UniProtKB/TrEMBL annotation:
It catalyses: 3'-dephospho-CoA + ATP = ADP + CoA + H(+). InterPro entries: Depp_CoAkinase, P-loop_NTPase. PROSITE patterns: DPCK. This is Dephospho-CoA kinase. It comes from Chromohalobacter israelensis (strain ATCC BAA-138 / DSM 3043 / CIP 106854 / NCIMB 13768 / 1H11) (Chromohalobacter salexigens). Catalyzes the phosphorylation of the 3'-hydroxyl group of dephosphocoenzyme A to form coenzyme A. Keywords: ATP-binding, Coenzyme A biosynthesis, Cytoplasm, Kinase, Nucleotide-binding, Transferase.
Amino acid sequence: MTTPVRIIGVTGGIASGKSTVAAMFAEHGIPWVDADHVARDVVAPGEPALAEIVARYGPSLVDDRGHLQRRVLRDIVFADDEERRWLESVTHPRIRQRLCDTLDTMRHGDAPYGLLVSPLLFETDQASLVDRCLVIDVPEKVQVARVRARDTVSESQAHAILAAQMPRQARLARADDVIENDGDLASLKAQVARLDARYRQPLDVPDQEDSP
């Protein structure tokens, strides 16, 4: 019977470069699932979660094609913790179930290991689904600059998004591994290559850095 492969949880604050890092691991032949992509799937047209959202906030939350207007919803939930918690109660269980299904397939696949990429790996207890946690770390001022450039939001909105996430130091305290993504692409690729070599070790062989 084939031994299930290891799943690595990849997380980091907004605009830390999680998808970029995952794509670099993919260049080494490693499969990955992105919780953000799954989160979009569970609120797609026809999904029960979208119906619940529209019932709570009204038809203005969808566009003329029936798709969720994510920015409008984001403005609501980031301004009100109670609304954010309600939205999480609707979406997080559905996201988790789909992730579990995908990870189960991944654990029994042919790759040496797989990735679960999630900005809320710790906040939603998705860390319990993985064997090891990799944090992509960047200074907060870099995050703010990247968010403002990427999402065309104000500085205050960018700070509000960061404030709603786990503090940087708390995230780092729970990391098994860290990639620092405030340098160039060559540095990032080198860090990914080093970790890829470690993660290819069998589950029953301890990592050298973890050995006494």
